[in-house]
Task: structure prediction
Amino acid sequence: MIAFAIAAHPDDIEFLMAGTMLRLQHAGYELHYMNVANGCCGTTQYERDEIAAIRAREGREAAESIGAVFHPSICNDLEVFYELSLLRKLASVIREVQPTIVLTHALSDYMEDHMNTARLAVTAAFSRGMPNFPVDPPRPHYLEPVTVYHAQPYTHHDPLGRLVLPQSYVDTADLLSQKTEMLSKHLSQKLWLDESQGHDSYLETLRSLDRELGRHSGVFKAAEGWTRHLPVGFCGADDDPLRDALGPHLHRAEDG
Result:
């Protein structure tokens, strides 16, 4: 069993997905970690190549801290477009990893890199069994099912400021220290987030976001949220491996 987190930028996995990855690891899943963009615009201090190298190192350290397999980025920040060359590259990685679960961004989020990453991840997973869709580098197609889950949009609001709640909540209350430890590996982002988004502390922002969603769950003190992508073309109609793996650590909103 393999879980593959595909996010836009270094630190997005830590904010939105890392608790669920840890839960899946505890359930026996092998973890894979990929940021599509290299983080080259997340600074006011460094040149592009310098910050990209720094952030690649930080992302690798964060992945290794939880025993996840790290996959390198494939483009620059603000160049995550839903276009063929990136799709071929990401689809090749999907065929290499052959995940049971793909965790990716919400399809509606505050910035285009997040939304386009989600679209790329969805189509890369969908095309896994298509031998006539060439990928870069070439890898054989495969036919095993994959279930795609979309994370919460950052801040739990859509681009127009409307509150978004998930189908399922994953308990992260006892994992916040591990999540913040992972995020602390992205040291270059502390000053950038303070300057660009007004965060007093990026670690406290992570905790606050999880606690806010925990309150919405009505069950957990802190949580990450997930909405399953329509299974047609991906997996069976009733497949929900996240639910099956996490048991009492997952609460479905429809259960009240």
